[in-house]
Amino acid sequence: MLTGALLILAPLFLGFAIALSNRQLMTVIHYSVEALVYFILALLGLGLGQMDGLLGQLGTMAAQVAGLVLVLLVANMAGLWLFHRWQPMHTEAAETGSRPGYGRLFLAGLKPLLSVLVGALLGYFLFPDLPMVDDVATWALMLLLFLIGLQLRNAGLSLRKLLMNRQGLGIALALVVSSLVAGLVLVPVLDIPWHQSLALASGFGWYSLSGIVIGDALGPAWGGVAFLNDVLREIIALALIPLVIHARPAMAIGYGGATAMDFTLPVIRSSGGLACVPVAIASGFLLSFLSPVLMGVFLSLG
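Below the sequence we write its predicted structure tokens.
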């Protein structure tokens, strides 16, 4: 298990070690990452569809997802609230000009669900015995992590400045600690070993990673649970950010997890102003690195 975890992590750090200056190549990498995400999610769905007794397990999976989402939401909000009390952050007035289309963002948030659903239907009805799905998904994930490592390294962001952003660093650490506390609380609820529960709690909204990594280690059912937990984090964050960012910016930025540096960033900027942008990028960047590391470490303990 440890070897598998290291294999998953190696491409991320390898990609981060490579500096690129070709902007056209970076554009190709951007679109390749987007395509790979949906391909991996479809493979996750395919594995779910091929699972024996899938229909009989849907109720159990729904309860597990509900427990994960609820406990993580409460724990994360509490941890981020405490951080806000300790290090209060102030926002600017909301932008009055162009705002992101919230309907469009919510629809975009549903695309991952659609990808998994299509894959599940294909696996259930058309390809119940298609071989090597897990192997293809693992290699696709490794390629995705390599490309994401390239993106993170060549995004024009200074790692030193990101680590020196006290608000971003504090928000990321508050989310990590509160998520791990939630993971321990969930051990008797999910009825799994503590290290597996901590791995499930370490997705931080990165659903394409957590679904495949957890699914590869614990089986397709748990992979589906991890995916739904993290994609719902993203969707809930879209609804929460405009409501709480002025009163509690840390809670609004932090709950989005790794998505704060990309998917939820437009909402953070339009709702909280430009002052929130570097904080969100720093927090999301750090969580994007910590998520695969923590999942790999916890799963290696089994």
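Residues 54-86 form the longest helix (33 residues).
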